[in-house]
Design goal:
The chain contains seven helices and no strands. The protein has about 190 residues and is an all-alpha fold. Helix 5 crosses helix 6 and helix 6 packs parallel to helix 7.
């Protein structure tokens, strides 16, 4: 188990992630720097490789592309914050054009606030369902059955895909680190012979 400790701790943390729901997002309008900080704080588990997770340029592009309303006097409200969180999560899996259409569809079906809260709750559930089995598994990963309402099927599918991607990346990283360490120990051992 020691070799999988990093993976175990990661899965433990990921299975307990909670997102800020609509009513708990800042009520007063904020500047771009604060928007970026909120998104980073909300999504510390997201990796962007060598790239930044979110930048002012990205937010400006989302406005240009019609994914976000224009800020009022360079200030952003709840809708901006919620949208940027959702876009940042989904762009790990989907092209921007599909994200835009999906957000618009969910807003029409449920209203913006309910759609955002549903997204957060379904993502939390997906994280629990994907990461929790690693915590109890010895040599067997059991993915629990899920019952999903039809109107949340797309959200559930994409959040499960994201979680599966994150888990896969962590497994690969963990195994690479494990084998790199073993190779380094073998090299050190041979040097002492």
């Amino acid at each position: 188990m020691e070799e999988n400790l990093d993976l175990y701790q990661y899965c433990m943390a990921m299975s307990k992630v909670k997102f800020t729901l609509w009513n708990d997002l800042p009520e007063n309008a904020i500047y771009a720097d604060k928007l970026l900080q909120i998104v980073k704080d909300e999504l510390p588990f997201m990796k962007a490789g060598n790239e930044k997770l979110i930048t002012k340029s990205m937010v400006n592009n989302y406005v240009k592309w019609g994914m976000l309303p224009k800020p009022i006097k360079k200030k952003y409200g709840r809708l901006h914050i919620a949208s940027v969180i959702v876009i940042t999560v989904l762009k790990q899996i989907l092209p921007i054009a599909e994200i835009k259409e999906g957000i618009q569809l969910q807003a029409v079906l449920h209203g913006t606030q309910r759609a955002y809260d549903a997204f957060c709750l379904v993502l939390e559930e997906a994280m629990s369902k994907v990461f929790s089995p690693v915590l109890g598994a010895q040599d067997l990963y059991v993915f629990d059955e899920r019952k999903i309402e039809n109107d949340k099927l797309a959200i559930s599918a994409i959040t499960t895909a994201l979680c599966s991607k994150l888990l896969t990346e962590k497994i690969i990283e963990t195994k690479i680190n494990l084998y790199s360490n073993k190779d380094n120990e073998n090299v050190k051992g041979k040097a002492h012979e």
